[in-house]
């Protein structure tokens, strides 16, 4: 039996029904989060839930729960589903009301849905790296909001998948922004560069953790934008996200990155990231190396 959350209740998945006039369904009007679970424990849950509330505030969607309440509900679902290794997906839509672009009145409550999914760590691609393609970033100008509206992202990912690539690296003109579902960092002459946390990217929780690791371990870090040429010219490139953690990118548009295999700084950050996971969630049974 699989349990899901619908508006604060833990119920069987087959019983969870959402109205066809849910604004998430009709407009993509809502916000979401994906949180990693290792050893049955959520990793960086506070950071994810704080970002969820912040995304809500940015679109004037009032989430009627505290971080503590959300964490408790999710922990109960994880336990009930016996989830050891995987993810939690959680979203709030602006609620159900007759279709009208303008927001409904304050009497309309947001609709909360959440579920768990078993997902292993992608150790193979974390070890060996993946291919990426370059795609113009056609998304809106509030990519800092983790919005349910993901058309630009999914179109980019689909284009990458069609050319046999794992990720689409997006750029606005010459400036590289982020992946379709990840942040992108490059290493050049020992310094890590990553796009600053502006409206043009989602400030990834994985990205923040990596930056913290760099600061604490003597890895030079510059939160500054880099160009497509810098990307092609980089010694190392990697993507980061909740599910892909730190995954090296070894080929972009058919050209090898550096010598075509994952580089030493990427490897070092992967090891330190695993340590951070183990510190919060306990020993990992499957490791990168
Ligand atoms: N995606 N940028 C975009 C556009 C993303 O969709 C994501 C995450 C990230 C990385 O954020 P984080 O490190 O907090 O996961 C950056 C999630 C996992 C998803 O949509 O499935």
UniProtKB/TrEMBL annotation:
Reported cofactor(s): pyridoxal 5'-phosphate
A GO term, aspect molecular function: D-alanine-2-oxoglutarate aminotransferase activity
UniProt keyword annotations, A-Z: Aminotransferase, Pyridoxal phosphate, Transferase
TM spans (from-to): none
Catalytic activity: D-alanine + 2-oxoglutarate = D-glutamate + pyruvate
The protein's Enzyme Commission number: 2.6.1.21
Cited Gene3D superfamilies: 3.30.470.10, D-amino Acid Aminotransferase, subunit A, domain 2 (3.20.10.10)
Pfam families noted in UniProt: Aminotran_4 (PF01063)
InterPro entries with a match to the protein in the record: Aminotrans_IV (IPR001544), Aminotransferase-like (IPR036038), BCAT-like_C (IPR043132), BCAT-like_N (IPR043131), Class-IV_PLP-Dep_Aminotrnsfr (IPR050571), D_amino_transT (IPR005784)
Quaternary organization: Homodimer.
Protein name: D-alanine aminotransferase
Source organism of the structure: Cytobacillus pseudoceanisediminis
């Amino acid at each position: 039996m699989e349990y899901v959350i619908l508006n604060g209740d833990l119920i069987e998945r087959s019983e969870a029904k959402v109205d066809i006039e849910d604004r998430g369904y009709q407009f993509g009007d809502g916000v979401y989060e994906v949180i990693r679970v290792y050893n049955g424990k959520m990793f960086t849950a506070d950071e994810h839930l704080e970002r969820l509330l912040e995304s809500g505030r940015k679109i004037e969607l009032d989430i009627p729960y505290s971080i503590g309440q959300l964490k408790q509900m999710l922990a109960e679902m994880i336990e009930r589903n016996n989830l050891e290794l995987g993810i939690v997906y959680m979203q709030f839509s602006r609620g159900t009301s007759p279709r009208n672009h303008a927001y409904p009145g304050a009497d309309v409550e947001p609709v909360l849905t959440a579920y768990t999914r078993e997902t292993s760590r992608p150790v193979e691609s974390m070890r060996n790296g993946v291919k990426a393609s370059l795609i113009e970033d056609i998304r809106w100008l509030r990519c800092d909001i983790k919005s349910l509206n993901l058309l630009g992202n999914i179109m980019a990912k689909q284009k990458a998948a069609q050319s046999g690539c794992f990720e689409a690296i997006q750029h606005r003109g010459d400036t590289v922004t982020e992946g379709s579902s990840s942040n992108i960092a490059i290493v050049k002459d020992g310094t890590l560069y990553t796009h600053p946390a502006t409206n043009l990217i989602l400030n990834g929780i994985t990205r923040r953790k990596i930056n913290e690791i760099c600061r604490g371990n003597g890895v030079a870090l510059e939160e500054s934008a880099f160009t497509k040429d810098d990307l092609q010219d980089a010694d190392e490139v990697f993507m980061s996200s909740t599910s892909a953690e730190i995954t090296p990118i070894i080929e972009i548009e058919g050209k090898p990155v550096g010598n075509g295999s994952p580089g030493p700084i990427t490897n070092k950050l992967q090891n330190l990231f695993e340590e951070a996971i183990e510190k919060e969630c306990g020993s990992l049974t499957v490791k990168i190396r």
